[in-house]
Amino acid sequence: MGLDMYLYLQERETNEVIEYSYYRKFNALQGYFVKHFSLENCGKIKLSLEMVNELYLLLNEIRHSPEKANLLMPAFPGPFFGSYEYDRIYHNYINQAACDFYHAKFIDYEKYDLFFTSDW
User: Fold this and answer.
1) How far is CA 1 from CA 4, 78, 82, 89, in A?
2) Beta-carbon count within 10 A of 39 CB
3) Ramachandran bin of 72, using left for φ above 0, alpha for ψ from -120 to 50, beta for the remaining angles
C-alpha cells in the first residue's frame, strides 16, 4: 500500500494512454492537487498548459529556495503517504517533478491531453 501518482497522456483521436511520469509517496504533490482541485482517491484531473506552467514555476521556486518548501508545497498527511520531512528525498521528488513539468510544457496539447491521477 501507499500513495501512487501518475501523469499520463491520452491521444485524442485514438484514446491511447501513455504513461508520462510516476511518483511514489510524493505526498506534497498530492496535497497540491487536493488543495487546488479537491482531488479524491482515484480521481483524475486534466491539466492545461497554463496549469503545467504554474506548477513548474512553483516547483522551480522550491528548487532555488528550499527553505520555502514548507510554505509553497507542504507535506500532506495520509495513510502510508511516506515521509513528512523536507529532506533529500523530498527535494529529489521536487527535482524530478520540476523536470517532468518542464518537459510537459512542450507537449502537443492539440493532439494529447495530460492527466494527473493518484491512488492509495
Assistant:
1) 9, 12, 11, 19
2) 19
3) alpha
Q: Spell out the residues 6+ positions from residue 66 whose beta carbon is closer than 8 angstroms to its own.
A: 86, 91
What is the pLDDT confidence band of residue 2, given thresholds at 50, 70 and 90?
A: confident
Q: Are 116 and 47 in contact (CB under 8 A)?
A: yes
512542450: which residue's cell? 106
User: What is the mean predicted confidence (pLDDT) over 40-55?
Assistant: 93
Contact 56, 32 (CB under 8 A): no
- What are residue 76's phi and psi, to 5 degrees? -125, 120
Say if residue 1's pLDDT is above 70: no
- Please tell me whether residue 42 adopts helix, strand or coil conformation: coil
pTM of the model: 0.92
Residues in the chain: 120
Whether the CB-CB separation of 120 and 78 falls below 8 Å is answered with: yes
